Amino acid sequence: MQLDAAMMGNTLVIRVAEDRIDAASAIQFKERMRDLIETDCNRVILDLSAVHFLDSSGLGAVVSVMKLMAPQRRLELSGLNSTVEKVFRLTRMDTIFTIHPALAQGLRHAG
Amino acid sequence: MQAEGQGARAPPDVLCLRIAANPHSVRDGLRQAMLWAAPYLHSEEARGAAEIVLAEVLNNIVEHAYSGGISLGNAESPFPLPLLGAPAVQMQSGADEAVCLILSPSATGLICLVEDRGARMHGMGPNASAAPDPADLPEGGYGWPLIRALCQDLDYERVGALNRLRFTLPARQSEGCDAIV
Predict the structure, then answer these.
(1) Whole-number Cα distances in Å, A85 to A28, A98, A107, B32
(2) Which of A94, A107, B84, B157 has the smallest number of CB atoms closer than 10 Å to its CB?
(3) CA nearest B140 in A: which residue?
(4) Is the pLDDT reported for residue A29 higher than 50?
């Protein structure tokens, strides 16, 4: 599970460099994210633009990371493709996360 | 084997996959199934929905039906194949085969039959379990609600030691599908 992290101002941007977050990779994802979000920052944006597919295990892992960051920080998402967006919409998790169409909009967003 | 590039559309036939009960085999099986299924699903939307349904169905089996380990009564012939009277296309095999997935085209999409020899799906059937409340930040429980939202004609039955799930993956997914509540 390759996750590329970079600070952009006070925002930690984590790009998932994999095409899937699924039952086979959810635990790895969660463990890598747990380490990365230790970074001192105001905001965290998870860029999912390379992710073509996310199942409910992947969704559960993203939710668990959100919970690890609470209550001080929230996890923001960007770059969801139509299938990934569908999973968030059908489960109504799109009401819980701040979702930016693309990373650029997320970085402009005041948080 | 399913041939590719032999015309605009593959001829009607049947795909049969046997998938070992672990997440990596599910991922491989899913890739093969979607490669085969793509010509029968008429939009990116429909293909995405089909992949979600198949992933959730297979993951449910691995995580719940087989959560107590695999115990095949008859290891030599775990499934009564071929079930649809058509020659089986065996793309995956191994000693620990545990899930049988069969896809066949219909007028409206793909008919799917999934069988396993795991535990009865108590409380996990297609008519059980409401969608979790997102405000509770649940980390699971989305599988069946997603399956119900994205497929048609869902039917689960326990046949002897078999779990048998049937459903249809629509060739055209209606746009703007609402939440699963």
Answers:
(1) 22, 12, 19, 23
(2) B157
(3) A60
(4) yes
**Distance from the B85 Cα atom to the nearest Cα atom in chain A, whole angstroms:** 32
A84 to chain B: closest CA residue: B48
Which structure tokens are listed for B93?
Answer: 């095999």
* Residue in chain B nearest A23 by alpha carbon: B23
**Using CB atoms, which residue from B56, B134, B177 is nearest to A96?**
B134
Distance from CA of B124 to the nearest CA of A (A): 15
Question: SS3 for A14?
Answer: strand
Show the beta-strand stretches assigned E in chain B. Answer: 15-20, 97-105, 109-116, 152-159, 162-170
CA distance A85 to chain B (A): 10
What is the rounded CA–CA span in Å between residue B147 and residue A31? 27
Over residues B90-97, mean pLDDT: 42
Set of chain B residues whose Cβ sits within 8 Å of the Cβ of A23: 23, 26-27, 55, 59, 62-63
Place of tokens 């996750």: A3
Identity of the residue in B45, B131, B146 whose CB atom sits nearest the CB atom of A82: B45
CB atoms A55 and B55 under 8 Å: yes
Residues of chain A found within 8 Å of residue B56, distances taken between Cβ atoms: 55-56
CB B56 within 8 A of CB B144: yes
Mean pLDDT of chain A: 95
From the list A70, A59, A64, the residue with the least C-alpha distance to A93 is A59
Q: Provide CB contacts within 8 A for A100, sequence distance 6+.
A: A45, A76, A77, A78, A79, A106, A109
This prediction's pTM: 0.84
Residue A56, pLDDT > 70, answer yes
Identify the residue with better confidence: A102 or B73: A102
* Confidence at residue B132, expressed as pLDDT on a 0 to 100 scale: 87
Return the bridge partners of B110, or none: B105, B169
